[in-house]
User: Fold these one by one.
Assistant:
Number 1:
Amino acid sequence: MHYSPYVKAGLLALAVLIGSLAGWELYLRSQGFELSYNDDEDLWAYHHQQVYEASAANPVLIGSSRMKFGLDLATWEATSGLAPTQLSLVGTSPRPLLADLARDKDFKGTVLVGITEGLFFAPSGSYPEQQANKCTAYYPKWSIAQRTSFFLNRHLESQFLFLDVERFNLRSLLNRAGVANRPGVFALPAFPMKFVTDGFNRQTTITKDFMADTSLQNEQRAIWMYVFTKAPKAPMSDSLLTSIFNEVKSDVARIQKRGGQVLFVRMPTSGKVWELEKQVFPREKYWDRLIAKTGAPGIHFQDYPELSKYECPEWSHLGPADARTFTKDLIRIAEQKTGWRIARPSVAATPAHTSTLAVR
Amino acid sequence: MVFNSYTFIAFIGVVLLLHNAPLPWKVKKLNLLVASYLFYAVWNPPFVLLLWLSTIVDYLVALALGREENQYKRKGLLVLSLIVNLGMLGYFKYGGFLMDNFVALLSLAGITYQPPGADIILPVGISFYTFQTLSYTLDVYRRKFAPEKSLLDFSLFVTFFPQLVAGPIVRPGELIPQFKVPHRATQTQFVWGLFLLTLGLFMKVGIADGMLSETSDSVFGVPFPLHPLDAWAGVLAFSGQIFCDFAGYSTCAIGVALCLGFVLPDNFRYPYAAIGFSDFWRRWHITLSTWLRDYLYIPLGGNRLGTTRTYINLMITMLLGGLWHGASWNFVVWGALHGVFLGVERLFRDRPARLPEMPLATDTVITQASLLPAIPMSRSVSRFGLALLTFLLVTLTWVFFRAPDFGTAMRLLLSMFGVIPVQIKLLATIDMYKVFVVTVGLLGCHWLMRDKSVVAVAERTPWWLLGLGWAAMLLVLVLTQKSTGSFIYFQF
């Protein structure tokens, strides 16, 4: 059969493409990488649809990465019978999300707000707010076309490693090229490729490889230290802090007025990260005032021996096994503190057994 | 629906299947029309009503214009069409802008006025299809084009999905006749269409989004002055991004149409190799520049009413061309700068001492697209120097085009030239490398391809080399997927 040069070129292109992608996929699998979903605006918007079903048993979770790592959704669902809606966003302040829920007249549910002081108290319009604002702006405009693409994409993402944007996208690979920056430039270093995976329910989990490899843990610890010491920080004046408290207080009041509930949670950190956080964001100036100003209940890990016993592998986030026991204990403490009914009667919330845990 | 989505892959698969099925031509056209409405509706279904309104009004007005001999009545019909089309455009696109300026004027006069909150959503591509239908009504009014009797063919002309939301802006004579006879892509057309689709997506996803958008967004998004290197990198990044994004869309549109057997006009001809601004406008967004020339510049009098009037007409055309892009004074400034540069160029060209004449490009599209004749130049080095100068000036105008407000634009311009002493370094070195490589590559490619076409180069390239290049683009596309957003020109 005679083919025109264009057809021959097209067939060759297709063959090279399929061959290259198959080779790349096999290589990635041979390196032990685990499949992960892209934790993007579409996945966030997909889960956002469920906020109107939220109650104390299946609250909306907002916060930053520590909520995504440390709140184990499967454990929560097993305990309460209902799955929470994970809307936390890595590296962002949850204030825009709280404000969005407060503005939404149809939202009357329960919200757990994770507090990472460096992100939560970031000034309005600052970088940590941008991703959150992007998502809140994206959801109302989430079109039929975008929903359809998301539906198709989720099936592909569950099969192919090379579709992982965070780790194997060309931009991400170029950013990992190790090109030194000019003095005075702050750029977030790339995290180890085997640090975490994301589930379709937006659960972020530290990988087995990372948990087993202390060199990877040290690499990530060094990154946190770089971020804490080198990242440009806007000066936090008392008036700015007061305006943030007032803004949060108003959002909490709006949700409570409609019958909703808000609970603040300070997730565990350890090692040098916790030491630095204590210095930079003293509890009495930030956490205590937040709880006092808003009048909403709060659970600080430091106040409970069962929540403060953990050592984070890279000082900032809970490992997967710890996340499970932490979640179980958190539910019990939340019930005691607030009087909310979260656990199913058949799974009466009891202290988590530590014998099977990797408690360090 | 955007071309760079899984939804589009599924959509075009079904459309191609139906278009190549053994069905009557009328049914195939109906399929294309339904597909086009679907293509548009998946963004925001209610806005299809606007498309229908525009279609019905212009269809009926044109039929009446064809029948009517009375000049007053004909003018009345034209005014009706203009009111409906420009009224829609004015309300959705310029309503908020006009109200803001009205409130500001009242405030200057000491009157405080709080307008009722109106969050107007801009229908995607409204400027494109409005100009397309306007050209039809104006051509029928001038008796340059006979009114289309088939509502199906006319509706398809207004709505044809490959170019509906971001051009190329097609004239009735370029598209409606193609609907009269059955069109189906030949094997070569189909494969070439797929190649163009890949090339367009590579430009958009691989270059604009994958290499440049982050840098440009960062630089234009900060509220403080930057180190000159960072400011230049950000502005050059946008220069490359806007070209790859918009020309990428046009290339996709042309490719998709070709897969169906239809030919759309070129919209870009390597504009960053332009020598002078008149040359730039023969190469950048050609279908808009020819539209502005034919329906605005020439009716205003063009260059037939003396020197002063020519400059005024030129400035009016460019100011309105700027405003077409968006309801913001920044776009007006952008248009004004282009008007000034075109005027200055014309002034130089009209000086008594003339350089030796260089033959004009004979290509019909370029000749048609010209607002002004080309600058005569001789030596290739000076030509390249002038092209670089043109590129730099065009790049400076992009600052106003991209900046969210006038203050940001001025701060960035001052940063670029080191006028502001505070010099914050923002960009990672790898991002600067990307901008540098893409800018040099883009300029080199435009210069080498200046008087050539992709198809001519492809015909001279061995098939295996073409196939490898094609594979490389596809690989970049797949590996850059999802780091991508909507096309910039959708908002216009």
Number 2:
Amino acid sequence: MSDFTRRDFIKLMSAAGAASAMGWPIVAQAARRRVVVVGGGFGGATCAKYIRAFDPRLKVTLIEQDTKFVTCPFSNAVLGGLRTIGSITHGYDKLRQNHGVKVIHDRATAIDPAARKVMLAGGKRLRYDRLVVSPGIDFRWGAIESYDEAASQTMPHAWKAGPQTSTLRKQLEQMRDGGVVIIAPPVNPFRCPPGPYERACMIAHYLKQAKPRSKILIYDAKDKFSKQPLFMQGWQKLYPGMIEWIKQSDGGAIERVDPKTRTVYPVFGKPQKGDVVNVIPPQHAGTIAHTAGLVNKDGWCPVNQRTFESAMHKDIHVIGDAAIASPLPKSGFAAGSEAKVCAAAIVASLRGETMPDPSYVNTCYSLVGPEYGISVAAVYRLKGNEIVKVKGAGGVSPKDATDMFRRDEARYAAGWYSSITADVWG
Amino acid sequence: MRQSCRALIMSAVGVASLLILTVPGQSAELTRGAMLSVSCAGCHGTDGNSPGSVPGIAGKSASFIESAMKEFRSGARDSTVMGRHAKGYTDEEIKLIAQYFANRK
């Protein structure tokens, strides 16, 4: 308060006037700084909750267009018939009731960094002292020729969970035995690096029981992928002969699709028709990050690795899949970890304190089968201005693990899901 | 009746704003221990209260958490993923984490 100026005093008085006109206690309103969070997924909801946990004096408003959030984690288990959509759907009541977060279900359409305001589709304008943008990903429609939003109705991406997940599941249920399922994962970076390969496992689990003569072809835009030796070992063990991976250099990258005939056209090699085609298109940061000028030329958001403050605009922080925080992966778990560091950075900054050194973590489970889980983990610290993995820590599950070890990891995967979703929305 | 109601609300408002101004203790201190420990909540639940199959660690004794972490790290204690995590923390950091969760409910 030592640098409290006359101008500040006038500002405070007019704010107080406005506040009292609305019937709010003058002094309390002036004392409360305001943080607005855009996006109620793993990053945004966690950040809103932890800002309030670190400092309940702060006023936190969360903007999320949907009243329910369907998680991408465990949506592959829905495809495999292990879970219902309902079991991976979460609401915002506990953030309101238990943590005092004000939740507004609306869409942020624009940000004015100079005036520190967020515009909502419904017409509201919200002023902030600090803004957190956690918009997740959007798809680069048209990056694969003819794959646009309309095409995703017949060839679902299911890379944002919800109706797309249900569409893909329904198509699998309606498919004939002996049918061909195509999964087409994109180049790096993209949301959830092991996700497409877990998806192959879960679809194979369903097909093995219901349509055992069917095949899964993975047309990959890459030559290697996350947890690859573990997945391939699992495919061999649980689904021998069912899953075929066609890597980029063998003609796996697709450049065009025909939604009418459900055909994918590789850059080189023969076109392939599928009975069910799951195209996971290339991605970039969610739309609002583009509108607000928070992205670089690649469409992702450069941020300070300690505070997640945008390199483009002051007092705006970007977390989660949209942010560039490699070696942290674009995972829901990493988004939650980034969100806590960001929450601490914001609270410390608003209090004029120095934040203790951050620590980040990632833990991702994949289900190869209902009783066969594998994982990857890492611990990260800040070195200079960069996030680095702690050497000697982390890594993937052992290749030579026992059946019991795989069973334990499948059980912990379910526990992981219960814990993280409670940590985010509970 | 309406008059007295309003008076009551106004005095409540007064008390509330007084509280907000005079109880800075409501906000938690941002310690190194907290910074390290909140990252554990993703698997172990908020404050270490796990709702599922991952063991809860809220309110466990600091000495138990400290020795378990060190044993995970050395491999003396079997684990699926904890050995991989524990290797990411120094003795001092493990102590801070253990104290943090020992003080949670």
Number 3:
Amino acid sequence: MIVKQLSVFLENKLGRLTELTKVLAEHDINISAFSIADGTDYGIIRCIVGRPELAYTVLKEHKFSVTITDVACLIIPHKPGGLYHALQIISNNNISIDYMYAFAAEHDAVVVIRTESTQELIQILQDNKLELLRSGDIYQI
Amino acid sequence: MFWNKEIECSSRNELHNLQSKRLHDMLLRMYNNVPFYRNKFTELGIHPNDITNVSQLSSLPFTYKQDLRDNYPFGLFAVPQHQVVRLHASSGTTGKPTVVAYTQKDLETWTEVMARSLTMAGISNSDIMQVAYGYGLFTGGLGVHYGAEKVGASVIPISGGNTKKQLQLMEDFGSTVIACTPSYAAFLSESILAEKLLDKIKLKIGVFGAEPWTEEMRSFIQNSIGIKAYNIYGLSEIIGPGVSMECECQNGSHIFEDHFIPEIINPDTGEVLPEGELGELVFTTITKEALPLLRYRTRDLTTLHYDTCACGRTMVRMGRIIGRSDDMLIIRGVNVFPSQVESVLIELAETTPHYTIIVNRENNLDTLEIQVEVVEQYWTDEMKVLDGLKKKIQHAIANLLGINASIKLVEPNSMQRFEGKAQRVIDNRKL
């Protein structure tokens, strides 16, 4: 259930993001989820892609500072209160979220969550009958 | 206090005669033993026998650092190897290191001028002296060391760095004197205050040099830990520390003119400037045996003052070094060497020694930005960790330099690498 997320350190420099996506495009790597954390002079790109190992290798080859981070991808119903219900369970179990980002599809929404222990988070979510996206699924989205 | 009152207070006339005789002797030794100088003199139609008065010095050619490099390692030595008892060398960051040599008599001269220097600052056999200059190829540590032993001080040869140990010995041994670079002295001062050691130490005198520093820095050190801070000047090509030293008047540094003749010249034309005018300092080493240098261009900018000092010494005083043409930056009145920034970055495991220093002036205030690479393995995908690293670097820079820098983290391997002399500074100020 652990999903491999790519994290890329990028300087705030015009065109840098374009270069990153160009490398992925040229290697036929699809982006399923994408977020940017922006600092004053650098940003961190976090994305979930098809074939993360390949993406990691080609980005390294192109001198990007990239790491692979474990995250959990939670499926919630695309309706009011959906996120609230999930977060309530997480906070009631004393788990702090480092960061998260989400994208909504037709009926469901997917929340990408990073915590200190992804394994523990997954266990709690499963114990509470919440649905998780398997890595194989999300890379296909 | 005087170590050698007779010579330090001798009349200008006596000094002039001594210099004339020693200059002539040196030129003869150069002519007979150093092909570089013999060729130069022959080319210019000069013979040492024509030079009998020190006033003729300005007609003689200059020696440049490049000449030392071109004749690396031993080409300019004026004595055979068996008479050389010590070799020192520069770090060689800009190419081949600069090698300097000493005969037994040269070491005695060095010890003598260092003993005069330390005595001038009031140091005697009742002092415990911590020598925190680097020992080794650098002339600072050993140069000060021999002089300190000569005056009878109890010498602690601790060398540079290891602040914790410096403070511990300072407290346990009751050191009364510290010798180190002014920037390290400032850092030690801050550490003494931070560790609340001021009541537990006995420090009263500081002998600081080996890099240009400001009057502000002196006040900072003197006021923060209540010592008297003296400037010592020297360069290894001339002998090492002990070329000149401040007396208790702290109004310029007395140059030991019976060994080193100073001149101030216009760096562009080479013309000797009148007393008091700012220009490049040039030295002739009239007693050096192993490596005598004629009109050596130091690239240090300063002034010379020949009036008798209130301390009674007749030896000329040089002002503070206003600048060195090489690489020093003055930021908000603080002298900054790229190497200082570098040392901070090297000490931190998370950053590489690849960096760029950018200086701007905004609203009449200098700003310092340091762009630095993060070591690949240390970079995480968490913003707070990276922000924490920025703060850590900022703090380390502020601790060492006393100024706040804005830190910009850049991608690993994105900074230019240099094989020769690195260009690490971009100064956008229009001064």
